[in-house]
Amino acid sequence: GAVVSQHPSRVICKSGTSVKIECRSLDFQATTMFWYRQFPKQSLMLMATSNEGSKATYEQGVEKDKFLINHASLTLSTLTVTSAHPEDSSFYICSAQLAGAGYEQYFGPGTRLTVT
Amino acid sequence: SQQGEEDPQALSIQEGENATMNCSYKTSINNLQWYRQNSGRGLVHLILIRSNEREKHSGRLRVTLDTSKKSSSLLITASRAADTASYFCATDDAGKSTFGDGTTLTVKP
User: Fold this and answer.
1) Which residues in B lie closer than 8 A to residue A6 (C-beta atoms)?
2) Which among B9, B22, B31, B63 is least surrounded, fewest beta carbons within 10 Å?
């Protein structure tokens, strides 16, 4: 089946630093990837839609200069949290959409970010 | 705002019993998907039901979809302790998924 990986699975960083999270589709090409954020005991909130070779589309209220998304290839999208603050601590999950498969999404295992 | 609302928010049952979770949504959809999430982990895709389907089965899972009522239900039969997790419905609109608030299921051995 379609597998999506995320790296790292956990990261702790200091306030003011930047953190990059990678999302890879391992055995398929994904023209579209999505980035979600999940706070404890809450649902997933879509942050942005990442399309290969073009700029990401951000949801309302998500700062594009703070959450930089790059979708450099059909198998890799990265999310960089710039100048991280403790309130950015969250669980970040990506998903990849299998091209031509009726919009089915495959989710990565998530990345736990803790900003101290 | 979230597209889906799930009911109940929390459900606690004994092993062997059936668990039913409901999801309501607001706009038209292409399909609806159910996911499971164990605590602190990623999402596991359970089942997808398309807007022109009414019922779908997968092992111990049964999903129904009523587009006239904009609602879906997930039934887990003969529950096991390993089914303990949060369950989310997600509606798809032109490729974008919107998640419900989720139901936390606890299955007691």
Assistant:
1) 42
2) B9
